[in-house]
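User: Thanks for the earlier help. One more: V-type proton ATPase subunit G. Can you show the sequence and predicted structure together?

Assistant: Of course, both are below.
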Amino acid sequence: MASNQGIQTLLEAEKEASKIVAKAKSYRVQRLKDARQEAQKEIEDLKKVKNQEFIEYEKKFAGDVGENVKTAEIETQKQIAQITKDFEANKEKVVDLLLKTIGDCKPQVHANIKKAA
């Protein structure tokens, strides 16, 4: 009867140990789940903060780009106006120079032909 009593005690101890192990496993699994959720929350919070910083940065420098485009457009218009003005002022001179050069043609024998003869 004493051996039967000892076996019964061992079985109860084994059941108790398996309950403790199961409880420890479930506790560990729960801690891992909680850690993942907390890490995910921190990631989302950080993402929101960085996204807001990016939006503020973009707003800060987006205005400069628009101003640069306007400045470049104004400068381009000024240069076009200057080129047009120079063209109008010099077109008659250029036409006269071309006509004079074409009209004052002096025919000459090419240097290679002179050598051959």
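User: Great, one quick takeaway?

Assistant: The mean pLDDT is 89.
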